[in-house]
Design goal:
heterodimer, A: 476 residues, six-stranded mixed beta sheet, 12 helices, disordered C terminus, B: 361 residues, CV3147-like, 2 domains, globular
Chain lengths: 476, 361
């Protein structure tokens, strides 16, 4: 029997939960969390409460926020709180010479650009919407740039025009740079972060490249804590903003994906504790106040449509669309809804009981108010219960004679992406297929977006040990 | 008057108000204008009255697919090649660039085009708002020849299209844009300054700036207060503050302009509770109805503001529960001539309605 442990580390509050293989909560805790030194104590207290042996923990899922997380980067302010000097120095390479109307990093806050960017260049390359070359790839230019930046950069971000149609040039450019720069330099490619919009995708890629260093340090700290507690079999996952999880190494190379992860798991955890899929979730603070409302449909949080600013830089990222509760709870509840009709209201977070008690009556637009057991630790429960997902997007001309093959390939790419994020290959399924038409194109064209998800892979780290053990058992 | 980087944000918010929910978000093209002004210096905004009557005015706009434009963001220098071609063809000098469509993202984009082309920008435009069609411009109503059309892409490929009818011009121009890869810059209705003085919407750039400044002055005031001030200042009507209670999209096969056609119901809130508006939308907001009565129709400018952000709302981004304030501003008068209404009145967009002048209640 193996168990999953969820640990949510907020600004001043931490929660932990242990779930059995059926997803039932064995125990949960919720406590103050004033410094990262207390991480070991949080995990130990969770284990003690559950009575589970550390060696039996197969997965640990962390949800991070604020001071312990990458979304410490304030959304609007023009500087980075904390993590002084730890950002990687990044070189930005754009493939697409005729895109000078907004050069790379042109409109970043000056302080941010100085801290992050070493050099940038706009070289010939990229793709057309029909998959042909936008411009021939400038290999000589790449070599010259690589020689110029060698020894000065920690990471390179490569962004090609229409890399979401074909990443061919991004991949080829990465090969050239890898040859020159060696393996110590991280190379991030924009097509992995998907989405249309050259400048926003480029910004996100550069930010992710800068964050690889602090993300790796953060990951190292979490791994050390896990090892010290004697959990050799546990694989570590991080919660992402869409309410799914990814293995630590995957999350480290996609650090912006964990923005909003704690809000997402706090909402999803509360809903799963209440046993509902469609609900409004109110997120509470320790003193019993309502902080924000999040709506869930089919168990998933509603997401923003992108345009999220990170440290003053526009990116195309989506984060959970939480509605802050300022004055009127009922207004916030109504704004959070996707459709008319009453929904159950689930209370989540450390102040759940106090909040539920403080309600004078059932708010309008709500079926009933549910404050399920363990909901104080909803974020930890949500992380522990979350699936692993992956996504693939591609721009597809509907007139293509290879339409069926393309659709099949994108489904396969989504499944592969989920597996790279740590999903169990045997359990990965396509969970949504979405085709969004693009306006004003001469050929009817859609953006095809496929998501696949599955449970976290099992025994990845201890597989060999267990195989040896089972062989021994069979012999006996 | 000179347009500097410092007033671009206000200008863009004015362009969004004039866009009637269409035109693409102006703020997205502020960066390109900012880069252009930083490189080339401020752009002169000139009155047509102050330009030599025989000089040429060149109306320009980006066209094609907004999605492609967001990837192939262009150089901003497309207008340089177009200017050269236009001057060669007509054998005389271009003295000003004009924004074809002030509503939405072509507002700030035209500032960038003018900056790189080394031209002043006429304080005028072809629509006074946003419309989806190339021929839905004041110059068409005034009888200016649409051709030739000169098109350029980000790699300085230039195509000159001549045709004797508007249909052929559009057909051939569209095939050039397709060959570019569904994005590019074009000019049509090139005319002399003298012609332009009686064929375009005058004062559009300064109007967008005034709207943007007024909104900025309103600062943190509630959105409805700001919208009421806009209505007072520009002769419009603040129709209602309401909550979106449904958005019904008319489904169809993905077509050239995607399947944009929707009906939106708004329930009045705060001071307007008990009322209900129906808003008909396509690329732009086309009509507002209340209790079976028409409150506003295209070509008057119907714009929705998000109560919380204070920003304008695009027709394709409305969702259930959103709080909005509905504003209607009078369109430029030239659209109210029979030929204007035939081109851009409600029936031109498939609505079985006549134009109704705005009435305050």
């Amino acid at each position: 029997m193996t168990y999953r442990m969820g640990v949510a580390l907020g600004s001043y509050r931490a929660s932990g939960a242990v779930l059995n293989a059926d997803g039932r909560v064995l125990a949960s805790i919720d406590r103050e969390f004033l410094s990262v030194e207390e991480l070991g104590e949080v995990m130990r207290a969770t284990l003690v409460a559950s009575g589970v042996d550390p060696g039996e923990i197969g997965h640990i899922m962390f949800a991070l926020t604020d001071s312990r997380a990458l979304d410490e980067l304030p959304a609007e302010a023009g500087y980075w709180r904390g993590w002084p000097g730890r950002l990687a120095r990044v070189a930005a390479v754009r493939l697409g010479a005729a895109t000078t109307s907004v050069p790379p990093l042109a409109l970043w806050p000056v302080e941010m650009r100085k801290r992050v960017a070493v050099a940038s260049t706009c070289l010939s390359g990229g793709a057309m919407l029909d998959g042909g070359d936008y411009e021939p790839l400038d290999i000589e230019g790449l070599l010259a740039f690589a020689r110029k930046i060698a020894g000065t950069v920690g990471a390179v971000a490569i962004t090609g025009v229409f890399s979401s149609v074909t990443p061919r040039h991004e991949l080829a450019a990465a090969d050239v740079l890898r040859e020159e720069l060696g393996s110590a330099t991280a190379i991030l490619l924009s097509h992995e972060f998907g989405g249309l919009g050259l400048v926003e995708r480029e910004n996100a890629t550069v930010l992710q490249a800068a964050l690889t260093v602090p993300a790796a340090e953060e990951a190292g700290m979490l791994l050390t804590a896990v090892t010290h507690l004697g959990m050799p079999n546990a694989e570590v996952f991080l919660a992402r903003g869409d309410g799914t999880i990814a293995t630590l190494d995957n999350a480290v190379t996609h650090p912006l994906s964990i923005l909003g992860g704690m809000d997402a798991t706090a909402a999803m955890g509360a809903a799963s504790l209440a046993g509902v899929q469609d609900a409004l979730v109110v997120l509470t603070t320790p003193d019993g106040a309502a902080r924000a409302v999040c709506s869930l449909t089919g168990g998933r949080p509603r997401m923003t449509v992108g345009h999220t600013k990170v440290a003053g830089v526009p990116t195309g990222l989506s984060v959970p669309a939480v509605v802050p509760v300022y004055e009127s709870l009922e207004e916030a509840l109504d704004r959070a809804k996707d459709a008319p009709g009453d929904l159950p209201l689930i209370v989540s977070g450390p102040g759940a009981k106090a909040f539920a008690k403080s309600l004078p009556r059932k708010p309008n637009g709500v079926l009933d108010v549910v404050c399920p057991p363990d909901t104080e630790a909803a974020a930890a429960v949500g992380a522990a219960a979350a699936p692993v997902s992956g996504e693939a997007r591609r721009i597809v001309p509907l007139g293509s004679p290879h339409l069926d093959e393309i659709r099949a390939a994108v489904r396969e790419a989504a499944r592969a992406s989920a597996m790279r994020a740590g999903a169990d290959p045997a359990g990965v399924e396509v969970i949504s297929v979405d085709e969004k038409p693009l306006a004003y194109l001469s050929e009817p064209t859609v953006v095809l977006r496929v998501r696949a998800a599955g449970p976290p892979r099992v025994g990845w780290l201890s597989g060999r040990t267990r195989f040896a053990a089972s062989v021994r058992e069979e012999r006996q | 008057m000179r347009l500097t980087g410092g007033c671009l944000a206000e200008f863009a918010s004015g362009c969004d108000v004039l866009a009637a929910g269409g035109g693409g978000e102006a703020a997205e093209k502020v960066p390109m204008a900012q880069v252009a002004l930083a490189a080339q210096g401020p752009v002169e905004i000139v009155d047509l009255a102050d330009l030599p009557p025989e000089g040429l005015v060149m109306p320009c706009a980006y066209l094609g697919s907004p999605a492609v434009w967001s990837e192939r963001i262009g150089t901003g220098r497309e207008g340089v090649a177009i200017r050269r071609q236009v001057e060669t063809h007509f054998g005389r000098e271009v003295v000003a660039m004009m924004c074809t469509e002030v509503g939405g993202c072509n507002g700030p984009a035209s500032v960038a085009l003018a900056a790189y082309a080394g031209l002043p920008l006429a304080d005028a435009d072809g629509m006074g708002r946003a419309f989806p069609g190339i021929e839905q411009v004041a110059m068409q109503v005034a009888g200016v020849q649409p051709g030739p059309s000169v098109l350029a892409d980000d790699h300085d490929h230039v195509v000159l299209v001549q045709a004797d009818t508007g249909d052929w011009l559009e057909r051939l121009a569209r095939s050039a844009v397709k060959a570019f890869g569904d994005t590019g810059v074009s000019t049509e209705y090139v005319m002399t300054v003298e012609q332009a003085r009686r064929s375009v919407v005058i004062g559009s750039i300064s109007r967008a700036l005034r709207i943007g400044r007024l909104l900025k002055d309103c600062g943190c005031a509630p959105t409805k207060t700001a919208v009421i001030r806009l209505a007072e200042e520009f002769g419009g009507v603040c129709l209602m503050e309401g909550k979106v209670s449904s958005v019904t999209a008319m489904q169809g096969r993905p077509a050239f302009a995607a399947n944009l056609r929707s009906s939106i119901l708004l329930d009045g809130i705060n001071g307007d509770s008990g009322r209900c508006l129906r808003v008909e939308a396509s690329h732009e907001f086309l009509a507002v109805l209340e209790d079976g009565e028409v409150r506003a129709t295209t070509p008057d400018i119907i714009t929705l503001f998000d109560v919380y952000s204070g920003g304008t709302v695009a027709t394709d981004s409305l969702r259930y529960g959103q709080r909005v304030v509905v504003l209607a501003l009078p369109c430029p008068e030239l659209w109210l001539q029979p030929a204007g209404l035939e081109l851009v009145g409600p029936r031109a967009f498939g609505l079985d309605l006549d134009y109704h002048p705005l009435v305050a209640r």
